[in-house]
Amino acid sequence: MNSAAPLLSLCVSALETWPIFTNVASTLRVRSLAQRSAQAAREVKQLVEEAVSGVEAALVQQAGETMGKIVAYAADVRSVVSGIARSATEQTHGIQEVNRALMQLDEMVQENVALVEELAAASAALQTQADALAPNIGRFTIDRAFFQNHL
């Protein structure tokens, strides 16, 4: 409040004692109330602005902290996904190696099957020849003394 307020209050009291000045006193009271109301409105406005500024600052800080957490979580997710990708690549290489080994094994099995078939055919041919020679074997005689002297 300004220094004129006590003087104004004194004037208002003096004017109230004279009926002719009652309207003037009322006007002065209204003016005083209007001035105090305007001052209170300015103070309320300042308080509201300070509160809004404080809320905005808090929201900005909270948003910054939240963004920091999101960035950290994103980095963690990126790291996990990168690890999964590395593992998948390693598994792919391992599967390719197993596939190559199975193909080589298949080739070897096919070669073995062919060799077994050839061996079976050769064995059958030998059996046929042995069967054809069997009747003729009885014609040969062996001199034991000859073998004993030459061995």
TrEMBL record:
<feature type="domain" description="Methyl-accepting transducer">
    <location>
        <begin position="1"/>
        <end position="127"/>
    </location>
</feature>
<dbReference type="GO" id="GO:0016020">
    <property type="term" value="C:membrane"/>
</dbReference>
<keyword id="KW-0807">Transducer</keyword>
<dbReference type="GO" id="GO:0006935">
    <property type="term" value="P:chemotaxis"/>
</dbReference>
<protein>
    <recommendedName>
        <fullName>Methyl-accepting transducer domain-containing protein</fullName>
    </recommendedName>
</protein>
<dbReference type="GO" id="GO:0007165">
    <property type="term" value="P:signal transduction"/>
</dbReference>
<dbReference type="Pfam" id="PF00015">
    <property type="entry name" value="MCPsignal"/>
</dbReference>
<comment type="similarity">
    <text>Belongs to the methyl-accepting chemotaxis (MCP) protein family.</text>
</comment>
<dbReference type="InterPro" id="IPR051310">
    <property type="entry name" value="MCP_chemotaxis"/>
</dbReference>
<keyword id="KW-0145">Chemotaxis</keyword>
<keyword id="KW-0175">Coiled coil</keyword>
<feature type="coiled-coil region">
    <location>
        <begin position="98"/>
        <end position="125"/>
    </location>
</feature>
<dbReference type="InterPro" id="IPR004089">
    <property type="entry name" value="MCPsignal_dom"/>
</dbReference>
